[in-house]
Amino acid sequence: MQRWIFAGLGAVGLVVMFFGALYAKREYHLRQPDKKWVPIALRADISLEDHNKIAEEIDEKLRADEILRSVVADVGLQEKFNQPSEDAAVKELNRRLFCEIGTTDTPKGSVPSINVGISGIRHETKLLGDTSTHIARIVLKMLGIDPDTGKPINPDNTPPSNEF
């Protein structure tokens, strides 16, 4: 009788250890770094130096205090980043924000792009995606493009094609 009790306790112990190991593995992978971005396609005939210049200009404009504060307020990042104040959430967003050059696939092939996004951990995947999308909409408005249609907001007053 005692052997059955010990065997049952051993089996329960093995099952608990197995599922505990699965949980630990899942948590380990969800704590790994993650980046989510939205690629904004550029013309292919622009030189690499101009791509870098455009990315730096967009990055500088995005890091303006009023833009960061609007993103924090619109997405609700103060609560989601677990920050005590809006200023702390703005600093955290500024630390996580990135704007880099890359490539994106289009129906016409691979074209250069500016990747605008935010970094974090895999637990925050949905938050990172929502924030990146919101930031990309702001960048498109800065470029004079309607985020919903992809067409110029004011066709008569669009920036010159050599700027962006």
Layout: helices, strands, pairs:
Elements: H1 2-30, E1 33-41, H2 48-62, H3 65-75, H4 77-80, H5 86-96, E2 97-106, E3 109-121, H6 125-142
Antiparallel strand pairs: 1-3, 2-3
Strand content: 15-25%
Q: What's the SSE pattern?
A: HEHHHHEEH
What is the residue-averaged pLDDT? 88
Instruction: Return Rg in Å.
Output: 23 Å
How would a crystallographer describe the biggest sheet? 3 strands, antiparallel
Please give the number of β-strands: 3
Shape: elongated
Structural class: alpha+beta
Please give the domain count: 2
Number of helices: 6
Strand order of the largest sheet: 1-3-2
Distance between the termini: 80 Å
Helix content: 40-55%
Low-confidence stretches: none
